[in-house]
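I have been asked to look over a protein record a colleague put together. What it holds is a sequence and that sequence's fold in token form. Please read both lines and tell me whether the tokens look consistent with the sequence. I do not need a full report, just your reasoning and any doubts. This is what I was given:
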Amino acid sequence: MTGQEDKTDKQSYTFICSRGTLDGAYPSLILGLNARRLGHDVSLFYTFMGINVVRKGYLSKLKFHPPGFLGAIPGMATLATNMMEKQIEEANIPSIGEIFEMAQLEGVKTIACKMTMDMMKIPHDDLVEGVDVMNAEQYLKLAGACAINMFT
């Protein structure tokens, strides 16, 4: 194997995002976008707080919450988010909004969890354009046919 996937070996992958934070959203988008660029079918499933990634106007509000006691200090999430965004920019990594847009344009499917939407009373028109909605049974049928199913 050369390290590069053969485009004729097309597979399906799903990535589940359950956290509505920068460090929760980036992994699924980066893995999904790269899998799509390798020629695979990719679906990103957003559930619980991760659903905020696919809500209109929320991408720019995602923060980084430091773990442990540091995260409990008032203002620390804003400071940590600013520091992380600076590191992202210095590393020439696209912003979360840019990566989300690239993923959508390149054919990565985005799916919101129906149960989460019902629980949080989120109407479908609050979602970013192009986001599908699935219940658990529908998602499991999709995931059952995939080569990779991963929580990020």
Remarks:
- Strands lie at 12-17, 41-46, 109-113, 132-134, 148-151.
- The chain has five helices and five strands.
